[in-house]
């Protein structure tokens, strides 16, 4: 019975994943999913799913092909109506909230967007110790008993003592024959990564533009957490000045003011210099703005910082320009003109929520 329940549960989860895949573009643009996140699990609303099943009746009206009538008589299909009905008393279609892990969500994201797995570059790895059951010892719990080794030891003992009978091959282990799996510490490489989200919170960035940034950041988080065991996430916001904030503030902050992008890039450089050795960390900055910078002089400073430090030190530097109702600026065009053949810098234009899907694929499709 337990195996049957598990089998049905797996089948149900497969059906749910199929529904999510079918409507994945719709789910990507839903900001309320961020609020439904609870640890490593996300609640996703899907249409109610009713699995078909047979129900036994009392068979009072006869079975199939039974009852009054002659061969060839037409069946009674009922009387046609006039097309005017009344308010019904039956419930409509309901939504079912299904919990799905972020790991499963990342797998769906990778399959749907055909994202390549990330390969850490350079020497940005540290050594991690882990215990594995690769040793053998003579004592231990029964759950770790090595049956093959125990059987082999008992067979050798019985042959050496002359108690083994080939005509009646019974192998009976004793206490001295028991062998158990033992832990041995092993060292393996572990990649470290840091994501730095940078968001323009100036007056020209409206609530809808900030919501787009928050939604896209959620999906980038989901994918990179799937790729890296160790992941630091930092949040920077800027208008004419930049500062670091926590996750909650980043997702809920509303400010106004002018825009000076270089302030964010200078703060980013300080954080990297103080806390993240580029030989040990995979670095992924994601900057979102409407592109309306303070002036050409500041843009030139930004390009210099990117060219000399930020792009070379990053695995991938991503800039997403969110279109503003007040008109988007020139920064995206300046980046694309200055970094025409730079593989470590990715840019995307995000006109609205429907553009999130393509932007994620642009940023993460490089597998950098």
Automatic annotation (TrEMBL):
<protein>
    <submittedName>
        <fullName>DUF444 family protein</fullName>
    </submittedName>
</protein>
<dbReference type="InterPro" id="IPR006698">
    <property type="entry name" value="UPF0229"/>
</dbReference>
<feature type="region of interest" description="Disordered">
    <location>
        <begin position="53"/>
        <end position="92"/>
    </location>
</feature>
<dbReference type="Pfam" id="PF04285">
    <property type="entry name" value="DUF444"/>
</dbReference>
């Amino acid at each position: 019975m337990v195996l049957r329940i598990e089998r049905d549960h797996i089948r149900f989860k497969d059906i749910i994943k199929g529904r999510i895949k079918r409507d994945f573009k719709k789910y990507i643009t839903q900001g309320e999913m961020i609020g439904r996140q609870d640890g490593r699990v996300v609640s996703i609303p899907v249409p109610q799913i009713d699995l078909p099943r047979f129900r036994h009746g009392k068979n009072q009206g006869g079975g199939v092909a039974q009852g009054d009538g002659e061969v060839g008589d037409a069946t009674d299909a009922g009387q046609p109506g006039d097309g005017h009905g009344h308010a019904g008393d039956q419930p409509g279609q309901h939504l079912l909230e299904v919990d799905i892990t972020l790991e499963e969500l990342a797998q769906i994201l990778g399959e749907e967007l055909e994202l390549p797995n990330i390969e850490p570059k350079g020497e940005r790895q540290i050594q991690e110790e882990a215990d594995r059951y690769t040793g053998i010892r003579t004592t231990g719990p029964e759950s770790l008993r090595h049956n093959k080794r125990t059987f082999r030891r008992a067979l050798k003992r019985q042959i050496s003592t002359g108690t083994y009978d080939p005509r009646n091959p019974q192998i009976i282990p004793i206490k001295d024959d028991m062998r158990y799996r033992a832990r041995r510490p092993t060292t393996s490489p572990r990649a470290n990564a840091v994501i730095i989200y940078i968001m323009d919170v100036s007056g020209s960035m409206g609530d809808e533009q900030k919501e787009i940034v928050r939604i896209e950041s959620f999906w980038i988080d989901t994918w990179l957490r799937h790729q890296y065991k160790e992941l630091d996430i930092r949040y920077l916001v800027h208008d004419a000045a930049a500062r670091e904030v926590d996750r909650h503030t980043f997702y809920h902050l509303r400010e106004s003011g002018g825009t000076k992008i270089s302030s964010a890039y200078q703060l980013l450089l300080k954080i990297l210099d103080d806390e993240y050795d580029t030989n040990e960390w995979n670095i992924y900055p994601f900057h979102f703005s409407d592109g309306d910078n303070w002036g050409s002089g500041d843009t030139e400073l930004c390009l210099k910082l990117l060219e000399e430090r930020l792009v070379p030190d990053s695995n991938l530097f991503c800039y997403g320009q969110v279109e503003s109702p007040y008109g988007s600026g020139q920064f995206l065009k300046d980046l694309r003109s200055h970094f025409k053949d730079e593989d470590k810098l990715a840019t995307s234009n995000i006109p609205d929520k429907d553009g999130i899907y393509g932007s994620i694929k642009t940023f993460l499709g490089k597998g950098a």
